[in-house]
Write a structure and sequence with these properties.
- The chain has one domain: Rossmann fold (3-Layer(aba) Sandwich), CATH 3.40.50.
- Helix content is 48%, strand content 15%.
- The protein has a five-stranded parallel sheet with strand order 2-6-1-7-8.
Length: 231
């Protein structure tokens, strides 16, 4: 695939397991770039919504992707997301876009096209990539793979707190149903279903702080920094 596997760390796991927060911090600690693949799917979902594209049409989504510039800017240490030059970092995080993203991510014919873009991002190496098929499909030869999980109730609590911080207050039961439905779709889709990657280090983050999870990951990831020093 043209990407140095010795420079890639993957983190897979279900929704609200803490992947994004942990991946950002792990990348910062290692001096690696952070690849937020979920942001790419969210951006395409927002683009489809704005363009009135039929999200049940695989070809329509593929055509939209081919004519849309989705860019992740990590130059400032945070991930800024752009659609055709328009920053959408906050716009892609609304509950409505979150719901639409599940359908976009579940579009089997679209995923290989997204994988190409994800691998292109990582072509320079030294990347922490998080998502749901990073260690199984996108970077199967990654040097270190993690699978981050948490109990359903822990994930419901985290997602509810996330919405609350944004001034939203969905009912806890609704949050639970949304997560269970997303789990069902992620695990049952015919293309790139959510699975524990072969050889992955499995971490149950229930009751753990972000710092504790990152420290556990660093035990496995720190040797890469010595093997692959910055050029």
């Amino acid at each position: 695939m043209g990407t140095p596997a010795s420079d890639i760390i993957t983190i897979d796991g279900p929704v609200a397991s803490g992947k994004s927060t942990v991946a950002r911090e792990l990348a910062r600690r290692l001096g690696y770039r952070y690849l937020d693949t979920g942001a790419m799917y969210r951006a395409l979902a927002l683009a489809a919504q704005r363009a009135g594209v039929d999200m049940t049409s695989s070809q329509a989504l593929i055509d939209l992707l081919e004519h849309t510039d989705i860019r992740l800017d990590v130059s400032t240490g945070t991930t800024r997301v752009f659609i055709d030059g328009d920053e959408v970092t906050e716009a892609i995080r609304t509950p409505e876009v979150t719901e639409l993203t599940g359908f976009v991510a579940g579009c089997g014919p679209l995923r290989p096209h997204m994988v190409e873009r994800q691998r292109e991002f990582a072509r320079g190496g030294r990347v922490v990539a998080e998502g749901r098929d990073m260690g199984t499909v996108v970077f199967p030869d990654a040097a270190v793979k993690f699978y981050l999980d948490a109990s359903l109730e822990e994930r419901v609590r985290r997602r509810a707190e996330e919405w609350k911080a944004k001034g939203l207050a969905p009912a806890r039961d609704q949050v639970r149903r949304d997560i269970q439905e997303r789990d069902r779709r992620d695990q049952s889709r015919p293309v790139s279903p959510l699975r524990v990657p072969p050889g992955a280090v499995v971490i149950d983050s229930t009751g753990m702080t972000v710092a504790e999870v990152v420290e556990r990951m660093l035990v496995h990831a720190r040797p890469l920094r010595k093997e692959n020093p910055p050029s």
